[in-house]
């Protein structure tokens, strides 16, 4: 029968795919630019504060800290204990975390900017303060780098907050939210003599929003300006939130990245700029209209051409470049466009993440909605590295944030903000991390005991299938797993697999040659590259005395990679009888409905609701060129929806949908894949008739076939490239493509295969289930 082809607009695009390379504190190839060695996730002893840290500057081995706080206390000290006065500034040794006892300036407002003087013995500071000690000092000052004492000769001032300061020779440039400086009109940008504070003739202006950040090019000829402004030196293009001006004349210079990154106005901004010898790094946020980037970018110094961009959704506040790694402070909640974590419900925020300093891939087409997220698809992107220390948000600012700033050296990284704990241990406002050679390397796999147990099935006589969810380590991707049986100290199975705190795939093996009817106990140990280890609890199973029969025997015998019967009597898990990935029921699907097979297996009732769906909890990587998917379903007239598909999210609705079997609004069975032209096949007649139907779809590089009740009803020849992206097998509901959001009816016996079933194999399944 000829194929019935439906042409639909399927969301398409190249989705970044995580590969086998490791990028953490023990990477497989540290010389590879895509897998640089990160610092570890071990929090080192660091002074604490009782407010918020806005800015940090590392000079030699000293970290200067600015923010809004009244006291400091040692690491481990509870709030309000062992305090010493430190008003909005402090300094400590980056190697030891020891507080500098001599450096103790007294300010009556916060500090948001710190820069060094030409002699290295003094600092320029900016913020909202109006006094340093007892001396009147309006928003900008020079202080002694050793004691914090005011340098009276420096007379510069501003009538609004100073948010950023950079220095070139004897000239100090600063930006913020002021309209005059040192007695003359200056629109949020000014330059003064570094010794006297006398105002220079440098007069570019930024209007329409504040200046948050300045960066000086290595040759000193360019000052790059970032913020929420909408014009720079009277120009909006370039000059919308980001631009470059001449350090001598103040005139606009070519800066091409500002045609790509457009963050300005009341709802978006560039939040930080970081100057290095190899390029400029910037961060930003957008919330609503007016901007297009939440994430970070890198540009070259020649004309500001884009080197890479990462569009991890979530406000991004600061960056630091250390040893080929870019450390980010913010609250990223979606990095799916660069091969990282997906959106969860509720949102999961990663407040300290890291990227390679070089471009290693392309940004995927953005399909996530909300906040006017832009599409940077096809642009160069860095690699998201496996480094996820956990920072607990604070309450000091009322904004619910954790880290606001990050700085570092070749050996240490320091985060500052208003967080109250790191990796679950109390630590307020500041924390250090170090390279593996200087760190204790004690952060290891996170799950143990009852939270780390295998799922056991015995599908045949003398056989046990042992499957488990991989563990997670905040700073190591590759973990070794040892499986023990009945307390024997020698493992019966050992493997090394990649995972992360957000990507925990299923692992499993088949243990054969066991005694039928005998009970065996299994447990799993996970170990990271530094020897940190966790052990899960024992789980027991009685070995089957016979193998599967009837329909189940045919499905498993034909090489199914996953087989979910949906005949569970209770609980939220639908066991995978062919693989190691259970389906997890969401809400209240009704178990125990009459099944499709003569073997007596029951089915599950779905009721057209987001609260009655099922999906694999862990993603899989269908990196195959051929596949088959099959399912039994029963839909009443006028009803239908998604039966089974491979979606990009779980349990949220998917951004992209692929390999979809569904009942359309007019009752037809349809199957489509995300390939060139978005090909879709459909049945010639309605299947919404309250009867059980068996749907199977197969794909090869040259053929798509749709089967209904054991017979081919649509077949198409062509060129079909199956997408190789990670995702989740979902049953009973997903983003509409071929049918409604959610299925109304009963679903039974869903199976997936890594090969294309033949006509005879599909017919054999139908006969085994129905007896006809």
From TrEMBL:
Hydrolase among keywords: yes
Alphabetical list of InterPro entries matching this protein: ConA-like_dom_sf, FN3_dom, FN3_sf, Ig-like_fold
Signal peptide segment: 1-23
Chain segments annotated as coiled-coil in the UniProt record: none
Pfam families in alphabetical order: Laminin_G_3
Entry keywords, A to Z: Carbohydrate metabolism, Glycosidase, Hydrolase, Polysaccharide degradation, Signal
Disordered, as annotated region: 21-42
Name of protein: Fibronectin type-III domain-containing protein
Biological source species: Frondihabitans peucedani
